[in-house]
Each structure stands twice: as structure tokens, then as C-alpha cells.
Amino acid sequence: MNAGVMLRDFVAWGPDATGPTRAVALLRIGLATMAIVRFGAEVAPFAAETFSELLLGLVFFIFAIAALLGVRARLSIGLLGLTIFLLYGMRQAGLGTAGWNHHHVYLLGISCIFLMFTDCGRSYSFDRWTAIQSGNRVLPEHGILWGQRLIALQMSALYFWTAVDKSDQAFISGQRLEQIFVWSYSGRTLEILLASPMLLSLMSCAVLVVEYFLAYAILTRRHRATAIFIGLSMHSTFYLLLPVSTYSATMMLLYLALLDPQSVQKFTKRMQEP
Hints:
By secondary structure, this protein is mainly α. 69% of the residues lie in helices and 2% in strands.
């Protein structure tokens, strides 16, 4: 295959990608909700210590609610992502509470920005409702999906680099997982998991193998269904066994970006039939 054909196929898969928009609309609603759940209490007016924090918190809620409802959907979800990055940068600089300078926060912010490169307002949105009510035109539930592909690439990169970070003796031997479990389970029922170093090592190796597999498999049509099942199972386990806050929930939500938009469209239409 020559370079010209490869470039054409890539453009068709990425920048020129179009299709049904209900999947990205559901992703928009989910990301806006996740942002409010994750950051709402920390940026609400009652938590503001300075006028700039108060102002930025109000901006956050305006964009989050607008994205949730689909008011100027593409613009509002993009500005929500930029606001999260602004808060992320402020926290990294030591302004505000700890815990913001984490890749979980980055993931949520960049996903919102990537979603701006889709027509996520053409389904389940105030934008669509007003277009229908005006009687002038009806927005077709079909549009640009480039941002959906970018989210899939971001997920692949996240799995790959987290696996690379874990590829050392400390993790493979179970020592790093033991530290996490000591912090999470000391004095609790699941403290029994600390009794078996072999089990900790096996669990660590399993996570490492799965993350390397997912980095590749979620981008391939042949292995995607298997990858979705394994990935959702892994993140469900993380959510139940570790204090990962909204990270696992966000990752499970982002799996919407891996589903075939046409299949999601057909499923939601069947669900909405009387």
C-alpha cells in the first residue's frame, strides 16, 4: 500500500469521518454530568476563597450546564474542556486544592475539547429542539465525528503509557499494588488480600497485560468487541476495589466513542419506539 492510499484512508477514518450523532450526543451529556460530579463541590461558590475562584467556578457551571442541555453544544462542551484545563493549570501551580494535577483531570478536559470536533448538538439537545420548533429546518442526526476518533486515540495512548509506567520490577512483583492496598484496606475486610504476595504479583501482571492489549485492540475492528468487554470489566473492578473517584466511570463512559455510531443510532431508535 503506497503512502497516498494510506493518507486517504486515514483522512476518511479521521478528519473526514461522518455518521449518526446520537452516540456523541450521549457522550456530551455524560461528560458534562461527570464534570459536575467530579468538580462541582470544589468550584461551587461556597468553596471559593478568592474572587477569581468564584468567577471561574461560575463560568465552569455555565458551560457545564449548557453542554449538558445542548445549548450551543459544540461551543459549550469545548469551553467546558478549556475551563477544566484552566482549573487544572491553576491547581498545578499550587492555587487551590490538591488532586487536580492528575491524568484523570486531564482526560476529562481533553475529552470535552475533542468532542467539540463532532456534531454533538444534532441529537438530544436544546439546539435540535429549537431548530424543530422554529419550523425552518430540522437538523439531521448525522454529522462530523472526527472528535470521536480523537477520543479513541487518546484512550489508546493512555493505556499504552500507563502500561509503560507499570513495566518495572516494583509493579510486576506486586510491591506497588501492595502499597495501594495497604492505603486502601488497612483495618478493613479486604485486608486479607495483603496476605498473598503471589496473588498481588499475578494481579499486577494481569493489569499490565490487559493495558498493553487494550492500547492496541480498541483501535482494531477485529478485536474491538473483546477489548470493550475486557476494558469495561477491568474498570468496573477498579471502581469496586479502589478509591479511584470518577476515573473508572469516566473511562467506561468514553467507551461510547468506540461503539459503531450506526449501531448506537439503531439501538436508541428501538428503545424510543412506542
